[in-house]
Amino acid sequence: MTTSQYFVYKRPIAWTLLIFTMLWGGYSYLHMPQRQDPQIQVRSGVVLTQYPGSSALEVEQEVSRKIEKVMTENPAVEHVRSISRQGQSSVFVDLYDTIKNAEPIWQDLSNKLEAINDLPTVAGQALKPKLNKDFGDTVATMLTISSPPISDFEIEQRAVSIARKIDEFRAGRPEGLRDRRYSGILVYPSSVSSDFIERLGRSALMDLTERGLIDDGQVLPMLGTSAFDFQLRPGVDKAKIQETLERWELANIGSGLSHPDIWPGLLVGPTGELLAEMKKRVQEVPGGVARYTHEDLHKFADLIQDRLRQSPKVGKIEQLGVQQETVFLYFSNRRLSQLGVEPMALAGQLGYRNINMPGGSVELPEQTINIRPSGPYRTESEIGESVIDVREGYPLYLRDVAEV
User: Fold this and answer.
1) 89 vs 75: CA distance, rounded Å
2) Quick one: three-class SS letters along the chain?
3) Residue 22 exposure: Cα atoms within 13 Å on the Cβ side
4) Are the CB atoms for 46 and 81 separated by under 8 Å?
5) pLDDT, position 21
6) Average pLDDT of 181-187?
7) I need a surface site. Which of 118, 191, 329, 366 has the fewest CB within 10 A?
8) How far is it, in rounded angstroms, from Cα 213 to Cα 325?
9) What is the pLDDT of residues 60-73, one digit of tens each?
């Protein structure tokens, strides 16, 4: 009897199997995963370690082999292999396919990496390997936050106020210093320190004066704008000033001594040309000059992230392209030498001060008072108030020798 004949003569069995198959199919369909990006158990990871200034052989002997030895101590690790390049070590770790929950194993491997205490040091800091095991994470949604550009109305209002201030200043100069005058203009938001902008203007004026191109250079501070006005010397034209300022910008602003929220600088002679020149410079920026600063965009991103975290369906949120806040110290090596202060000593003093440590407690008859030191810096003004030395019984503050 063939299979087909068997089910023809044994109809109750055939109907039972058919009904059971349909019920099992319906149950599987209703309970099958419905994620657009299903969670995939990844059992591979990579340990990256940066070792600047070292050769591939040094990386292999001093870093890669030590990490490989630590990784093989976990019995769930199947394969360990490494690639040692100049200044970088990459150690790949593969777990057994039979591992169902790999998260505890990755945590154990991370703890073992942190326990390594014989890795080389660079600039007094021990190397810190980083374990990356998030290869299975998939991006379901990407949100982009951008600022709208500055409107023409805002540009016109800004240009009118700047032109009025420059005209008033030029009218007050002596008779022989009123002609052949030009102004360099920097517009900045309120998040940028006016002292920093004034420093840039004075640096540009000093460079032009030392080259013998201008006379009577003056800085005109305004609300949200800094202008440096000067008179051209005989034989000097706008093109020469523009070329010199471009070299100065490349040497100073191009080296990182700038701020991403500052408008493009412009050079104008008669104030009647200011509006057209400002619109031209703003339009040269891809997408236009942003109305909101990077700090504002970061706050918006944090607010959106906090709201998304309230949803139980959101697993992980990561921000990309965040402009990190940076604090610069401007100081004169000549002045530090006169005071007998080493530049590296300043870094050491700031490092000792910018820590968060418990201060203990004071036991009183009826209560216990916990002492908490001031700890890390919160504003740039606190950095300037740091005491770096004591001279003849008087404290020497950082703001006395450097500009924050």
Assistant:
1) 23
2) CCHHHHHHHCHHHHHHHHHHHHHHHHHHHHHCCCCCCCCCCCCEEEEEEECCCCCHHHHHHHHHHHHHHHHCCCCCEEEEEEEEECCEEEEEEEECCCCCCCHHHHHHHHHHHHCCCCCCEECCEECCCEEECCCCCCCCCCCCCCCCECCHHHHHHHHHHHHHHHHHHHHCCCHHHCCCEEEEEEECCCCCCHHHHHHHHHHHHHHHHHCCCEEEEEEEEECCEEEEEEEECCCCCHHHHHHHHHHHHHHCHHHCCCCCCCCCCEEECCHHHHHHHHHHHHHHCCCCCECCCHHHHHHHHHHHHHHHHCCCCCCCCCCCCCCCCCCCCEECHHHHHHHCCCHHHHHHHHHHHCCCCCCCEEECCCCEEECCCCCCCCCHHHHHCCEEEEECCEEEEHHHHEEC
3) 5
4) no
5) 92
6) 88
7) 366
8) 36
9) 999 999 999 999 98
Q: Are 386 and 309 in contact (CB under 8 A)?
A: no
* Long-range contacts at 361-366 (CB < 8 A, ≥ 24 apart): none
What the block records as the tokens of 171 is: 């009218």
